[in-house]
Structures are given as structure tokens and as C-alpha cells.
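Need MsnO8 family LLM class oxidoreductase's 3D structure for a figure. Predict it.
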Amino acid sequence: MKLSILDQSPVISGKTPREALLASVELAKHGEDLGFIRYWIAEHHNMSSLASSVPEVMLGYIGANTDKIRIGSGAVLLPHYKPYKVAETYNMLQTLFPDRIDLGIGRAPGGSAEASIALSGNYLDNVKKNPESISELLNFIYNDFPPNHFYSNTTASPLPVNPPDIWMLGTSIKSARLAAENGTGYAFGHFMSDKDGPEIVQAYKENFKQKRNMSEPYTIVTVSVICADTYKKAQDILFQTTERLLVRQNEEDAYSSKPNLNEEIAKRSKLLVLGDPKTVGQELLAIKERYQADEIMIVTITDNYRERLDSYQLVASELIQLR
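Structure prediction for MsnO8 family LLM class oxidoreductase:
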């Protein structure tokens, strides 16, 4: 079974952002050793609990500390940026780490309204232009503007031998159609969606148009997982992680309403695969079958970096040999 990693670089209790980022490097190295085929790091802004605001910086560091695992963004939040700069950045990464770079594209704000304004001005206006921005980005990545286009003589250098692989990330029929129309891979965020994911993924497959270097649709489904030696231990990890997260939220915003711990655990559990390796393995196989997915990507948040590594290791031991 093909497995991969999505990392949000959580800053856990008692740790600094630097320690969170170094833990991300260790997770990528650990994932490579375990046989995960790709590692993506997310982009968030103005969030003290998540350390990765600039994925491309981390990808340069992680690429230099790994050998073969594919590395990428999950995702570049394109409404904040000019397509040309994004293309230059990921072409450079692909030049440094040939045939290992994934450029994941998203459209979420990734943070507060104030952070969005600081990054890009009118975020909502930029979202409306997102389809055009994606098209322009792809033209820069593949260096294939029409001869009479304004940018026909503009190169997003350095041009790698092969372009990075392009992915659309989302949880909606709109993102699925964008991926299909542009002939890119599609990563569906099962861990953050209550929509009919299999139907959305099927729409992507049915409408996929072969373009450039991707000959057929390819789907990744991202799932939130906590795996431990026993179901009880996995439950304890969820409880402890949620409890400490709520304590931190209350400390940072003393004026917000205080969510109930049990309610918060129940909310998280709805979209979480939790348990011992056999239970988790069976549930992930069922999700893969339900979506007819090509690959399962795992995101694991715990309040202990060792427990996070152990969770990925247990899942890998249960499933990777099933490829």
C-alpha cells in the first residue's frame, strides 16, 4: 500500500518553534527509512501552534537531509502569491533535488484575516482569480506559453530537466474540477471534510483531461491518524493531546468561550482513525477502497514527538508491505 506523510509542524507543549521544525526534519528522515513515498509540509500563518509558514524553506533543508523520499508543499496557498515567483521557487527546488519535488496548490487563507491582508492585500479578490493564476503557474512550470503571449519569452529559471509534479489540494467539487481540467494530481483532505469525499474524487477521475506529462488521474486521500500499541494507549494520546491543546488555546485567548474537553474529543474523533496497528490498518484499507484512492497520506498530531514517530512506524509496519 502506498503511504505518505503530511506534516503541519505542530509546536507541542513545552517546545519551541525551532524544536518543532527540527522534529519535522526528523519525521521526514524517519518516513524515508520506513518506506513512505512522499513527505509534504503545510503552510500556515500567524498561528503559534504551527511552525511552518514558509514550506519552501523547509523543503530545501529537508531535501538536503534526505535522499529519495519525494518532498513537497501541502500546499502553496496560491492566492497569496504571484505564479511566477512560485514557479521559480519550485523549479529551483527540483533543480537541487531532481525528480523529488511535488508542488501542491491550495486556495485557503491559511491563517487570520489580518495575516491574509499582510500577505496579499485583498485575499477574496485573489481567490476569484485563482483559476487564471493556476493556469499561469502551470505555463511557467512547463515553460509552454503560446508564442504570442506576453510571457512567452519569460522563463521561471532555473529550468530543471523535468518539472516538479503538480497537485491540486482541496475538499470540494470545485477543487476536483480544477485538478481534472488542468490534468494534475488531486489530494482530497478527508481529515478536514464532512462532505461526500468519494463522490468528489470520482468527479475528478471522470472529468480528468490528459495534459502535459500526466497521462491519467492520480488521487491521494489525506487521513488523520493516531496509532499506538493498544487502542487504550491511542485513546490516552488523543485525550492528552486535546487537553493540552485546549489549555494552550485558553491561555492565548482568555476572552473566547471555553470548549468542553469531551465535546472537543468527540469532534476530533469523527474524522480520526485511531487504535492499534491492526485496527488502524483495516480502517485505512477501507478508506482507500471507498475512495478508490491510489495513495493514503497520513497526518498525525500528538503532544509528544516520539509518539508521533511511533504512530507512523506502527502504521508503516502494518501496511507498507502490502504494496
